[in-house]
Design brief:
7-stranded mixed β-sheet, 7 helices, alpha+beta, flat
């Protein structure tokens, strides 16, 4: 199911990008032309905010397009390790060990759910949690950038905090808060963190040049819905051509597709190995026979998932990219024939 979904997603995205590339209209950002409404437009311009971005939880106010707040809390964390060993005479023995470390994490950890909670009690809470705060109004030339676009704009850079920021903290946070490495530290001693201590960092996206590829509507932007299925709405920092935007999107689609293919293959392989494991465990009563069966079932467990993967990919792509689909189909058929030969060859050994 995962492989089929992935191939369907990949085909939809590829067709959507192809359709959008043929429909894009290049426009200037300094003037809104109503004739381009509901069209996919590409433009480059200067993005500015009408006022500072304000974080009311910490009293931070900075000139930026958006402000990203990240909070971490110092907690005990449980690590679980499970090992399986074959027992002499057949069968398996499972051993689970638990270890505990102190780490900076993104949210409080419930130590009451630990296997061994004694001596590993957590306490404390975050101040306000993580946040992605956009400026109240952002413009790109004569256009207004919608909030959902602003939240995705640019690559945030660290905004080091100073004593001036410490002075603007709300009264309930001033006591016990310090500056450490450009971040707020809430706790007794930054050099010796204690369970429940909190540290908060800030990043900002500065005003600058951005390129947009989206649907124009009433002086702003929204996702452009393609007939193929995907919505197109890209916004990148700097002067970026539409051709590069489409190329980058196609490369990302390819990377995601192959990553999910690999993970899908692994899940199937481990699934087949689990199904066939009893055969090798049964054969382990006689070590030599168990090794032979284990090698045969292990090889089949990888060849068969590979065959299924190629078959799914071939069916999904054969009507979109016939050459790729035919090659995949041929590999799938070859893998199926090879799997049958392996299965037949393993029967005498299993006997």
């Amino acid at each position: 199911m995962v492989l089929w979904w992935n191939e369907g997603r990949a085909v939809t995205t590829a067709n959507s990008l192809k359709e959008a590339a043929a429909a894009v209209v290049h426009v200037a950002s300094d003037k809104v032309d109503p004739a381009n409404d509901k069209k996919l437009v590409h433009m480059t311009g200067d993005a500015k905010a009408d006022g500072p971005v304000v974080d009311t939880d910490y009293g931070i106010s900075v000139p930026a397009l958006r402000l990203v707040r990240t909070e971490e809390i110092y907690q005990w964390v449980e690590n679980k390790k499970t090992e399986k060993k074959e027992k002499v005479g057949g069968g398996e023995e499972t051993t689970t060990t638990y270890t505990y470390d102190k780490k900076w994490v993104g949210e409080p950890v419930k130590s009451s759910e630990f296997k061994k909670p004694d001596g590993h009690a957590n306490e404390g809470d975050l101040v306000a949690g993580n946040a992605n705060i956009p400026a109240e109004k952002v413009t790109l030339g004569a256009f207004t950038v919608p909030v959902n676009f602003v939240k995705e704009m640019g690559s945030p850079i660290k905004r080091a905090l100073t004593d001036a920021d410490l002075a603007t903290l709300p009264s309930d946070l001033k006591e016990g808060t310090k500056i450490q490495d450009g971040a707020f530290y809430i706790g007794p001693n930054p050099k010796e963190p204690k369970i429940g201590d909190v540290r908060t960092t800030f990043e900002i996206v500065k005003p600058g040049t951005f390129s947009v590829l989206a649907e124009q509507l009433d002086g702003t932007f929204e996702p452009y819905q393609t007939k193929a299925g995907d919505a197109i709405d890209f916004i990148e920092e700097g002067t970026v051509s539409s051709e590069k935007m489409f190329k980058d999107a196609a490369a990302a689609n390819t990377m995601i597709t192959w990553l999910v293919r690999f993970l899908g293959f692994l899940f199937m392989a481990f699934g087949f190995m689990a199904i066939m494991k009893p055969l090798s465990v049964l054969g382990s009563v006689i070590p030599f026979i168990g090794d032979i069966i284990g090698m045969g079932t292990g090889l089949i467990s990888f060849v068969l998932p590979g065959t299924i993967s190629f078959l799914v990919i071939a069916i999904a792509w054969i009507f979109v990219r016939p050459l790729l689909g035919i090659v995949m189909l041929a590999l799938a058929i070859g893998g199926f024939i090879y799997t049958r030969k392996l299965a037949a060859a393993s029967k005498p050994a299993a006997a």
